[in-house]
Amino acid sequence: MNLWLNTCMLKSFLRSTVYHIEKSFQRLRFASAPAELPALLGISFPKSGTHLLDQILLGFSNVAPYARRLRSFYAEYEGESGKKRDPEQALKWLDSLRPRDIASAHLFARPEVVARVSSPKFVPFFIYRDPRDVVVSHVFYVTDMEARHVHHEYYRSLPDFNARLKASILGRPDADVEFPNIAERFKPYLGWLDRPEVLKIHFEDLMHARAETLTSIMNHLLSRVTLPAPRQLILDSLEASINPTKSPTFRSGKTGEWKKYFTDEHKKLFKEAAGDLLLKLGYEKDNSW
């Protein structure tokens, strides 16, 4: 046990050391850029393009002294145990970030967290996706891609995809770990939609209107800081940073796939569970889909 713990501590120390050395080289590489650039924070609802947004934000490291890798990732639930983290942990994690860091999180919009993220210390982005595609993606992820996930064995025990999709829509209210329905899972993130400091990004826009969306991402940073690089070079760097094959959970990147998997029963269950969620997020104008 002591050997394992010591090995983990050594690996953590080495990763931290390499990170800070790389960050120092970045500062020398872009000596004419501001030294105290705010941290870039990518916030995402799970299964909504987290790794895609990470890659794009890391693209800024090609034109500015930002870190070339993520400083860290935070999630409100522990992946293997499903245990919900204490709200204080999110604040401690945010406080650990430094200028020119790039970080990623599944982060609830609690008032105290929103206050931190809306401060000059951060330039925040929030990516989300059609919740109908989210529940489909969740089935594939939990069943086939992440054997250590807390719900993996349960999903594998279900008879077919239809049953698993129902579970992703309705949650597991009787489980020992918290896993509510899709509307309740999204509810803690809704507060990000009301914050002007946070750039809201539809995953679908990165698929079908990428140039315009990357421009918005660039402009969101440039509205706060001045970078010496030409705008076109910045855009080209963001575009070039996108590489789906380097995403450990990338499956298809398609949009509207829910139409292939939703039966009439799934549509009924989703409408009952989600209420007006699709309207709030701008994916439907009414409930007649």
Q: What would you say this structure looks like, in words?
A:
The protein has 289 residues and is α/β, with parallel strands linked by helices. It has one domain: Rossmann fold. Helix content is 48%, strand content 9%. It contains 14 helices and five strands. It has helices at 2-29, 50-58, 87-96, 111-117, 131-145, 152-157, 161-170, 182-186, 203-208, 210-222, 231-240, 258-261, 264-274, 277-281, and strands at 39-44, 73-75, 102-106, 122-128, 199-202. Strands 2-3-1-4-5 form a five-stranded parallel sheet. The protein is globular. The relative contact order is 0.15.
Strand content: 5-15%
CATH superfamily: P-loop containing nucleotide triphosphate hydrolases
Query: Briefly, what CATH class?
Result: Alpha Beta
Figure out the total of helices: 14
- Cα radius of gyration in angstroms: 20 Å
Biggest sheet character: 5 strands, parallel
Describe how the helices and strands are arranged.
Elements: H1 2-29, E1 39-44, H2 50-58, E2 73-75, H3 87-96, E3 102-106, H4 111-117, E4 122-128, H5 131-145, H6 152-157, H7 161-170, H8 182-186, E5 199-202, H9 203-208, H10 210-222, H11 231-240, H12 258-261, H13 264-274, H14 277-281
Parallel strand pairs: 1-3, 1-4, 2-3, 4-5
Helix pairs in contact: 2-11, 3-4, 5-7, 7-13, 10-11
